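Structure in, sequence out. Go:
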């Protein structure tokens, strides 16, 4: 169904654009992966761009979901900030990191003045600012890449007359022309007979922008028509040969891709850029306002991470060796034998991540307000390297994300069972009865049963006034949620937690699990343990430290 045309760029247009971009990249992902020969011929540019936009789209949807119960709608600034932040925290690979900076560059313009919408002039300025910001973020810009395509899109938009739809169409057409010229700018592309993969992804995103404004899908870009030479299998052979040449040329070069989010000030990041630039290549540092996404190719991955530690607080650290059949060294290594079974779990804090890891699980850290995208879960399942995987989302809101990830890895021949755990304490119960040596179906049934027998609660602080099942709460009130619904409204974390625990134990129980967040008040665990000892005979209590988990306290009763 065609989209309803948008005259101005507002919050709804942002939402529509993100959804259409995700669909466009989903359709083009395999094509883009197949033509990826620069800067590293690792065949994942399409996937990285898809995962980056998936994170951006998810953040925008979360903003809209927060307004669904009220009469207000998100502002343009709300939606754009969410889009840019989601892309920043979910950016993957060189191309995804640059795309995140393009979106952040647009956000700088679109959020000025907290206006409800912008017109064509604002869109032109946003596209120009995006292209300039992306170029500044790359340590050593190279022509014939996505940077060239972004600059051409901005140039074409500057020269366009008309409304936002006309500007978007001009940007798209300018990008297509620039993309077709990329093989003449980069020898690696010319040898392979392909256009730049990152630029191809940006064309898909700009095509989605045209559709968001006009309701019309622009003519699909035909990469095969851009480069004279081989087609079909012959072109595939040319890509393979170009990748082999890339391996040979890069022998002895950086062997690892290092990516992490970093909390740090601008001065520290300037020093970090200089240090990482000396360590490796393909350096891209994007972000601002204290949060950055760092991407670099290095031989010494540890040194790249240590540089981040010196600059601030790195997290979500991903270190990828460029393959068995290494892209940079050209060496073939025997593939690691798959384990029979593994557990992959989403956890809300560093403390629980350690606990789950000790129990043998592969973990995905979900920081407050930053839920993982399906691509991160897919990566975790692949890292687990097992024939059978039990997936624990540990959050009701992640069930669809986890289901999408499970569907993708099943297509890769991995047997996956999704247990619909809605809290990390249910995941703990499931993991406690996990036995990898019994039949898969039996193990899944036992883990599902243990999770389902665990009631869960959390004690949180209200962010705004709202209606709840327990009455009206005000911002700053302490809320006690049992099985996902607000059951208690209080003013003190410890007292509210005690009331919640009493209500849960009225239905019986044998074990109480307490997971303390960094925000938990001193002595709350001792108070609750004492309450259980005094009032509930034969009930045991176990306490864990969850770290920065977003809630002062998680409670489980089984």
């Amino acid at each position: 169904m065609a989209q309803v045309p948008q005259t101005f760029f507002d919050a709804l247009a942002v939402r529509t654009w993100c959804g259409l971009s995700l669909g466009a990249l989903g359709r083009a992902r395999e094509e883009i992966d197949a033509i990826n020969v620069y800067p590293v011929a690792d065949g994942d540019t399409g996937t990285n761009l898809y995962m980056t936009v998936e994170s951006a789209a998810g953040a925008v949807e979360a903003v809209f979901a927060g307004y669904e119960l009220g009469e207000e709608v998100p502002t343009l600034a709300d939606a754009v900030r969410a889009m840019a932040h989601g892309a920043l925290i979910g950016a993957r690979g060189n191309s995804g990191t640059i795309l995140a900076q393009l979106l952040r560059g647009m956000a700088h313009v679109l959020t000025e003045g907290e206006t409800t919408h912008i017109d064509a002039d604002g869109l032109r300025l946003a596209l120009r600012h995006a292209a300039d910001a992306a170029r500044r973020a790359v340590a050593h810009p190279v022509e014939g890449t996505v940077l060239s395509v972004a600059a051409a899109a901005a140039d074409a938009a500057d020269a366009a007359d008309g409304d936002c739809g006309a500007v978007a169409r001009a940007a798209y057409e300018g990008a297509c022309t620039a993309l077709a010229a990329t093989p003449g700018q980069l020898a690696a592309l010319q040898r392979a007979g392909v256009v730049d993969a990152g630029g191809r992804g940006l064309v898909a995103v700009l095509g989605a922008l045209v559709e968001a404004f006009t309701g019309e899908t622009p003519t699909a870009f035909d990469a095969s028509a851009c480069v004279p030479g081989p087609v079909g299998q012959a072109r595939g052979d040319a890509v393979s040969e170009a990748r082999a040449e890339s391996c040979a040329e890069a022998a002895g070069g950086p062997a690892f891709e290092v990516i992490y989010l970093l909390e740090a000030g601008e001065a520290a990041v300037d020093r970090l850029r200089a240090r990482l630039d000396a360590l490796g290549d393909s350096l891209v540092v994007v972000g601002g306002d204290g949060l950055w996404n760092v991407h670099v190719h290095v031989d010494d991955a540890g040194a790249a991470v240590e540089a981040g530690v010196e600059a601030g607080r790195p997290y979500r650290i991903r270190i990828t060796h460029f393959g068995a059949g290494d892209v940079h060294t050209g060496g073939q290594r025997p593939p690691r034998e798959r384990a029979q079974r593994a557990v992959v779990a989403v956890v809300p804090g560093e403390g629980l991540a350690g606990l789950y890891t000790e129990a043998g699980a592969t973990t995905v850290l979900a920081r407050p307000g930053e839920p993982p995208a399906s691509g991160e879960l897919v990566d975790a399942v692949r890292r687990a390297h097992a024939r059978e995987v039990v997936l624990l989302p540990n959050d009701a809101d992640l069930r669809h994300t986890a289901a999408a990830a499970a569907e993708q890895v099943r297509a890769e021949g991995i047997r996956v069972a999704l247990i619909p755990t809605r809290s990390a304490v249910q995941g703990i119960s499931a993991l406690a009865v996990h036995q990898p040596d019994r039949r898969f179906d039996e193990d899944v049934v036992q883990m599902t049963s243990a999770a389902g027998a665990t009631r869960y609660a959390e004690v949180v602080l209200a962010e705004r006034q709202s209606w709840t099942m327990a009455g009206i709460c005000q911002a700053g009130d302490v809320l006690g949620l049992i099985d996902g619904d607000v059951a208690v409204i209080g003013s003190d974390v410890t007292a509210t937690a005690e009331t919640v625990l009493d209500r849960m134990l009225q239905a019986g129980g044998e074990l109480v699990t307490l997971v303390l967040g960094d925000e938990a008040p001193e002595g709350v665990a001792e108070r609750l343990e004492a309450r259980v000892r005094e009032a509930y005979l034969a009930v045991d209590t176990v306490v864990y430290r969850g770290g920065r988990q977003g809630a002062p306290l998680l409670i489980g009763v089984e």
